[in-house]
From TrEMBL:
This is O-methyltransferase C-terminal domain-containing protein. GO terms for biological process: methylation. It comes from Ganoderma sinense ZZ0214-1. The lineage of its organism: Eukaryota, Fungi, Dikarya, Basidiomycota, Agaricomycotina. Residues 270-297 are annotated as: Disordered. The keyword Methyltransferase applies. The keyword Transferase applies. Residues 317-493 form the O-methyltransferase C-terminal domain.
Length: 576
């Protein structure tokens, strides 16, 4: 590292600011439109002036978005270079505290409380009082098994310190000592619900929202807990004792892979899961241990116990989705559906509409959204393309609650029959459909798999893809929406696809001082990769990995439409 590299990074930042300013100037006809201030909240449900709307919308302009990413990448690289290693290390290794503080902000409804307080903000004593007024309501937006806060859990002092950490990390503003207000970053988590609505119906907090708050809550709850078990899961050191439970994992004699005693007689992991996720590793059993079949079976059972850090953290043999459907997880289950709406934010607005040539489909074409949840993405297609019929397939419990999760906003669409749900296990053969307005459908025009492949190991994905391949007609397309991760090193793979085509196009020019994958500006893709490891022992994939996987199930990738500068892509494949 030399001064010339520091200067080159500085120049990247300066050049990118110039690019952003140029777009703002040109698009506002030189009216002096300013870049949105971090200090000013922007609530997506509120009324805005045309200038405010344009200033916000331009952040999504491809040139602005790309320049912003260069700034983030360069600042990250520059900061890591010049920061005292101890400070940088502490910021990173203690990041969990910041994550917990953001979850607290969301779960305590502080963003909504501060929205109503306005730009002058609210003293922490008044914030604290309102948190309690909401939380001591009998109903709670938090998962059912969460006891309401009591003064013993949360002191005034604690609230103030958590909020100050957030203000220091640019998530709030401390406008006067102990007085906090929302800023642009915190306002992004707003649900738009009034405090009165949250008091009246806390369980509806995420209904009719953009899902961002639900995603924050889900990540801060389940994901933060299971990811803390990553190393214990990956590097179990203790040997079997046959006693203890995962929840007692601080016991020095505890073996993370030993079966919890109360589950010793439970059905096998495969039976409990019902979809093959948890027993994925068991199939790789070492067949020759002492030649003793009973012992081998027992060993296999043990290996299957904690397939992913999630299983370890929550002491369950169930896969994540069946676990979510347990009665005690009712709140988490509903929240997960809304969190999937939040995942739209990985894409540019309504990216699914640009991810495929929907307009080229014939009248009455059928899109099957496989593992589509509440249909958070395919509903955008149904709305924008009246010639397309959408059928969402998912597990029974998801299907039975999907329509009610949307509230009244799409009632006409559902009543028209152009968007419907049916229960299907995607590991089973695809049964032909009958759509009242169209009659029997032997093969759909498109199978969509969005955020599904990344939930599963390769062998499970192959099973899912093979079932779709068996059901496909010659014109059926497979559309996969997931992250596509490039390497972080400057080899050719970061610049081109497996077949040499420019499918992943460069994120940076070859002489740039930035990492070829844009480093921390694209960290989100690599974080989700590890989140999937934590949840399912699954992963996000590279272009090469996805190409090989789809081919193994009879699908050939023909097009990749990447969100500019992002890890997110829609990949189209056809039957081979
Ligand atoms: C990460 S979510 C993605 C939801 C949706 N595709 C989206 O992008 O919003 C994965 C979905 O797969 C569903 N799923 C899990 N196992 C399934 C199975 N065996 N058969 C059908 N759906 C399943 C889950 O219920 C969940 O809705």
């Amino acid at each position: 590292m030399t001064f010339s590299t520091l200067r080159a990074l500085h120049a990247v930042i300066g050049g990118a600011i110039y690019d952003i300013e140029r777009v703002y100037r040109e698009r506002s006809q030189d009216s002096g439109l300013e870049y949105p201030s971090l200090d000013e909240p922007y609530y997506y449900t509120a009324q805005h002036t045309p200038e405010e709307e344009l200033a916000e919308a331009l952040k999504g302009d491809p040139a602005v978005a790309a320049a912003s990413k260069r700034i983030v990448a360069a600042c990250g690289q520059l900061a890591t270079t010049v920061n005292k290693p101890w400070f940088g290390l502490m910021e990173d290794v203690q990041r969990g505290q910041f994550s917990s503080a953001i979850r607290f902000l969301e779960t305590a409804n502080i963003v909504e409380i501060l929205r109503e307080a306005g730009p002058a903000g609210l003293h922490v004593r008044d914030i604290h009082r309102q948190i309690f007024e909401l939380r001591t309501n009998l109903k709670t937006a938090a998962p059912e098994d969460t006891a309401p806060l009591t003064p013993a859990n949360l002191s005034l002092h604690a609230s103030g310190h958590i909020l100050r950490l957030l203000a220091t990390g640019h998530y709030l503003r401390e406008v006067a000592p102990d007085v906090f207000a929302n800023n642009r970053a915190s306002s992004y988590i707003d649900t738009g619900k009034s405090v009165a609505q949250l008091r009246e119906a806390p369980e509806k907090k995420y209904n009719d929202t953009d899902g961002v708050a639900a995603f924050v809550a889900m990540t801060g709850d389940e994901a933060l807990k299971f990811i803390s078990c990553l190393t214990e899961w990956a590097l179990p050191e203790k040997r079997a004792t046959g006693t203890g439970t995962a929840l007692a994992r601080t016991d020095a004699n505890f073996d993370y892979r030993a079966p919890p005693p109360e589950l010793a007689l439970a059905p096998s992991a495969a039976d409990a899961n019902g979809n093959g996720n948890v027993n994925g590793d068991a199939a790789n059993g070492d067949a020759n241990v002492n030649g003793d079949a009973a012992k081998e079976k027992e060993k296999e059972k043990e290996r299957a116990r904690y397939v992913a850090p999630f299983n370890l953290a929550f002491n369950t043999q169930l896969g994540y989705f069946p676990w979510l459907e347990l009665r005690e997880n009712a709140g988490r289950f509903v929240r997960f559906g809304h969190a999937m709406t939040g995942t739209r934010q990985w894409e540019i607005k309504h990216q699914i509409l640009q991810g495929f040539s929907w307009e080229a489909l014939p009248e009455g074409a059928v899109l099957v959204d496989v593992g589509g949840g509440i249909g958070a993405q395919s509903i955008l297609v149904a709305q924008a393309h009246p010639h397309v019929h959408v059928v969402v397939e998912d597990r029974e419990q998801v299907v039975s609650t999907a329509v009610s999760a949307w509230g009244p906003q799409y009632a006409d669409l559902f009543a028209s029959g152009r968007m419907s749900w049916r229960t299907r296990d995607f590991f089973e053969a695809w049964p032909p459909l009958t759509i009242p307005a169209l009659g029997p459908v032997d093969a759909p025009a498109v199978f969509l798999l969005r955020l599904v492949m990344h939930d599963w190991k390769d062998e499970d994905c192959k099973r899912i893809l093979s079932q779709l391949r068996a059901a496909a007609g010659p014109q059926t397309k497979l559309l996969i929406g997931d992250m596509l991760l490039p390497n972080a090193c400057a080899d050719a793979a970061a610049y081109e696809g497996a077949d040499g085509s420019a499918v992943t196009f460069p994120f940076v020019t070859k002489d740039s001082p930035l990492l070829p994958n844009l480093g921390v500006a694209n960290l989100h893709g690599y974080l989700i990769d590890i989140m999937m490891m934590g949840m399912f022992d699954a992963k996000e994939r590279t272009v090469d990995e996805l190409t090989a996987l789809t081919l193994s199930a009879g699908w050939k990738i023909v097009e990749i439409r990447r969100t500019p500068g992002s890890m997110w892509a829609y990949t189209t494949a056809v039957p081979v």
